[in-house]
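Hi there, hope your week has been kind to you so far. For a while now I've been wondering how a particular protein folds. I'm sending you its amino acid sequence along with the backbone structure tokens. Could you read through the record and tell me how the tokens relate to the sequence? Take your time with it, there's no hurry, and the full record follows here.
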Amino acid sequence: MLQKIFFRITLIVALAAAFFSCDELPCEDPDGAQANLSFFTLERGGLADTLIDSLTVIMLNDSLPPYDTFFFQSATSNISVPLSITDDSTTMIFMYKDSIADTIVFRYSRFMNLPSHECGFVTFFELEDVATSSNRLDSAWISKSTVEHGESENVKIYF
């Protein structure tokens, strides 16, 4: 009788240990690697963070509408945006609160990375060039060319 109780307790402990040892998949970001953009204004004393209010980003890489659109409704000094995994460039339109728009074109090369066997391959990007219109934007500078998982700034955008 004591052996049956000991066996049942051992079985329950083993099942509980197996159940609680399962972890969530270690995939860093289900949306893939995104370019991190920060906004700045050139001032007499140097650079100052710039808050952009109610920014709409329209992605033009799809061949036909509807295009992917991202809304940033609160004031922000940085955003993360996806890059096309099928093209070597991504074109975006930045629509500001006052209906003025700017165009940004990112040119890059793509490469596959295997962060883990559980997550599979992820597309990372190597930024080569950023071109902008100048309605409200002054310029853009690549501060970290490799676009991978994480919150490291990739591009500084100057107003």
The helical segments are 2-20. The mean pLDDT is 84. The radius of gyration is 23 Å. DSSP finds one helix and eleven strands in the chain.
